Amino acid sequence: MHRGSKIAQMFWGTLRQGTMFVVVLLTVLFLPADRSSRIEVPVTTRAFAARSEAAVLTQISIDYPEDGSIFPPGITPPTFLWRDAAGTSWSIDISFADSSAPIHATSKGERMQIGPIDPDCVADSNSPPALTPQQAATWTWKPDAAEWAAIQTHSANSQATVTITGYRDGKEAYSQSHVRFTTSKDEVNAPIFYRDVPLMPASSSGGAVAPLAQSNIHLIHWRIRDIRKPESHTVLKDMPTCANCHSFSADGKTFGMDIDGPANDKGLYAVVPVQKHMVIQSKDMVHWNTDGKVGTVRVGFMSQVSPNGQYVLSTFAGPELSRLIDSYYVTNFTDYRFLQVFFPTKGILEYLNRATGLREPLPGADDPKYVQTDGVWSPDGKYIVFARAEARDPRPPGQGRATHANDANEAQIKYELYRIPFNGGKGGTPEPIKGASQNGMSNNFPKISPDGKWIVFVQCKNGQLMRPDSQLYIIPAEGGTARRLRSNTRLMNSWHSWSPNGRWLVFSSKARSPYTQMYLTHIDEQGNSSPAILIDNATASNRAVNIPEFVNINPDGIDQIEVHVADGVQTAATGK
């Protein structure tokens, strides 16, 4: 028989015995003569063999970090999370694309746990944090500081692969899965200033619901976080009055904050220079109530300090409206998980010139036929991006009372994003932004990247901000196709802020708990985002993080804030 026929018979016989041997035989047949004594299995064959072996193992569900995650350099060690009903112990192997030695660890399995709570924030109107059934079935492993430092070093700009293998009785491999992640070259390079609040809705004897009883206002804290540190630093607490939205100028030199005055006067706004030790006094207060009458409500909604600190942009109801209920839809719920809906249905954009002390409407964003809100500055201060919708009565006759977030009885409004030149206060013609308008959704809370290239905004079915269905989207600043951020979690994504270098976004989410936490995502030059990275230990497990904002200062640039209230006597403590 011809030699080729014999080889063919060998070939087909081997095929019947298994595909693996076919690949090996083909390799032998086509080896050069000078390598005939050495059989090398190609990479593709080794990969096939590995996949064949892994196919018999039960799949582990690795929940965190997600595949493709990007960690900022210097962040504290994360806790790896996975679910595996089969294993009783696990090996964690981390290999690196830079060919450095892998890291190996073992785990007998620690369950996911609830962190410490703040006993002062326990109330009949809320529930203690609890694990979901999925979380209760989750196993954890946390690298120590030295392990994590090595992991970050060897995953810098190249992939690390984490393989978790489950064993039964520590002997036989039974389950396995892996994820890949990298450590970015881009530093976060700025601290995060945020409000830390209890979720304690309160009902009055008359049935009215408040998001927080007046007696508990002092429980609101303001913190600052360096992600390289294991915990946050409290800079302000024990306020005798309510303070809300805050903003910083892009250069990190000016700070603004809403502060309630006497008799629940919400028409005050503080503007002060950023310092290590900041003191807010009556001389630093801007009175939105220009008539000087307490109770003539001129709430400045979502006030924003300009990049150079010279102006403050805000939403006002206009001169013909003097009551909060005429221009805002506000409903508070007894459900602590989503305890308030608050958004304007009428209003115009106005700006304060700090040099002159005058507040003026911004032409082109002052049309009473619309509500114009959420105004933010471009990095160069030359234009404004804002949300707009047709003006409407917040509570028309016959409208039922909403009992929960996204109730059909809420005032229905869908905002669209517009751009207008600031033009030294002269304004101009507003133009809709493609990708964030006329899409059947409510587009709101825009934030422009520091390089002016991108806009990230919230999209939801109705209203704005902290909605159960809120998702983050990115578009080119000039408009274009909107892309959903990969970092979006299953429940509420909002209150976002850009890092000064434009490579990181911080945002709040209720993905893991009704008690809101904050997360990071990396944004590259093409506007691509990465899976969410949790900022651990930002607050007690029964408190919520909101309004996180990157501040363009050194991590220790703010140590203490004092607020001297109207009587000039009481001063907010610093938590030291």
Task: Show the helix and strand layout.
Elements: H1 3-17, H2 19-29, H3 43-55, E1 58-59, E2 61-64, E3 69-71, E4 80-83, E5 89-96, E6 103-107, E7 110-111, H4 133-136, E8 138-141, H5 145-154, E9 160-168, E10 172-183, E11 192-198, E12 202-203, E13 209-210, E14 221-225, E15 233-236, E16 243-248, E17 254-259, E18 268-273, E19 277-280, E20 285-287, E21 301-305, E22 311-316, H6 324-327, E23 328-332, E24 340-344, E25 348-353, E26 358-361, E27 370-377, E28 383-390, E29 416-421, E30 431-432, E31 442-448, E32 454-460, E33 471-476, E34 483-484, E35 493-498, E36 504-509, E37 517-522, E38 533-534, E39 543-550, E40 560-563
Q: Mind explaining what this structure looks like?
A:
This is WD40-like Beta Propeller Repeat. Pfam families: PD40. It comes from Telmatobacter sp. DSM 110680. 10% of the residues lie in helices and 36% in strands. It has 576 residues and is mainly β. The chain has three domains: 3-29 and 39-55; 58-183, Immunoglobulins (Immunoglobulin-like, Sandwich); 192-563, Neuraminidase (6 Propeller). The strands form eleven sheets. Strands 1, 3, 5, 6, 9 and 10 form a six-stranded mixed beta sheet that branches. Strands 2-4-8-7 form a four-stranded antiparallel beta sheet. The chain has a four-stranded antiparallel beta sheet with strand order 15-14-11-39, with no helix packed on it. The model is unreliable at 1-55, 292-296 and 567-576 (pLDDT under 50).
